Amino acid sequence: MWPPSRTFWTDEFPLATENGVKPFLFKALIPQPLAGEAIFAETLRNGTLAGACRTGSAKARVYINEDRREDLLCQVMEGQIGSNEDVETYIHRVTGERRFGFVVNNLERVSHALAEQLGLFLSSMFSVRGIPIGGVEQVSFAGNYSSTAFGIHEGFEHAFLCHFGPGTKHFYCWSQGTYLKLTGGSRAPTFGDFTDWLRFGELFIMEPGDILYLPARVYHVGCQSEYSLSVALPLYTYPLKRFVAKVIVPSLLEDVPFEEEGMSYPIPLQRGSPLHDGIAQEARGLFNHWSSSAIELFFDQYLLKLRSNGGWEIINKPPEHFDDLLPCDAMNDPASYLLPEPYRALWQRGLNCEGDEVRVFVRGESKVFKAEPAFMAFLETQQKPTMPSR
């Protein structure tokens, strides 16, 4: 069943994964029409991947063994894949390399089809287990590499690895305790020939359509001798302290006014300058203000952005033109406007706007409108039913 039922998340998933702490391979979970590399190949064929990489919406990398090759990436991005050519044949032709790894970050901003289908999978989980505070991204791994270019490494967030094929992937996992014994206490990634270590790991043989749940802090590596495509879905459940430091504070700092009359004095060269106390006082004042009002307001808007974007991450998301996301003429003909899954049009009156205004969120962006009856009626037409219990 796609997406998985509510029962899958309430009963099957917790039991199989010991409530999310144990790796488990769910067989044939991805529907057959979605498996394979056709959707991914189309992003190369129609130029959307190259375009997204140029604008910074996505990032691609090419690896030969464990070496990152920017020169070969340029050839892949600038070349033209044939109408009947598969990705393996294309990359082999333009790079001259027989074995390779091709990694793309934020593939959800490139392929609408994968964003929709994998978004449905995630939405079914969100309704039961909640949404990760940092959102989710798609990281695709295509190639016929002998082992992942990152070596045996530790995952710092829970993730799902969706295997599309066409080949088979051998995926090995080690508990943190087992890995530390093998390395003599080092948590650093292990590169090179680690064949002797494979027998100490847990092997998952991934076939097209399988999804592997990979908990955080599990060491792992993927190996494959034949070409295939996998797409990882890391769930960015950042520690709250890190989220405040990396997301909230930088955003709030953008709104701190520059007051020319408040310029500081030159800093004395000797230590113990009174300026230290002034800086500490200003910092305390900022954080006191933020904690009482601005942080709550920011987080309310952030959650609406995240939900409107279907749970796909909005951190470092290049800004889009809101009128392209919600064109004005859509309000004249509501039936003509339909956001694809898993995106939502969400709104809240008076959120960082006047009482007679409404802030609307679409795909991670927001804009303020007058809350006129006709406009509010239009927004009501954009309501989508929640996922049914099945």
Q: Write the H/E string, N to C.
A: HEHHEEHHEHEEEEHEEEEHHHEEEH
CATH topology of the largest domain: Jelly Rolls
Assembly state: single chain
Strand content: 15-25%
Q: What integer is the average pLDDT? A: 90
Shape verdict: globular
- Class from helix and strand fractions: alpha+beta
Can you name the CATH architecture of the largest domain? Sandwich
Number of strands: 15
Described by strand count, sense and barrel closure, the largest sheet is:
8 strands, antiparallel
Main CATH class of the largest domain: Mainly Beta
Number of domains: 2
CATH superfamily of the largest domain: Cupin
Proportion of residues in helical segments:
25-40%
Strand line-up across the major sheet: 1-10-7-12-5-4-2-3
- Based on CA atoms alone, the radius of gyration comes out at 24 Å
Distance between the termini: 10 Å
Number of helices: 11
What labels would you give this structure?
eight-stranded antiparallel sheet; 2 domains; 11 helices; 390 residues; alpha+beta; Jelly Rolls; globular
Word description of this protein:
- With 390 residues, the chain is of the alpha+beta class.
- It folds into 2 domains: 229 residues, Jelly Rolls; 93 residues, no CATH class.
- It has 11 helices and 15 strands.
- It has an 8-stranded antiparallel sheet with strand order 1-10-7-12-5-4-2-3.
- A hairpin with a 2-residue loop joins strand 14 and strand 15.
- The chain is globular.
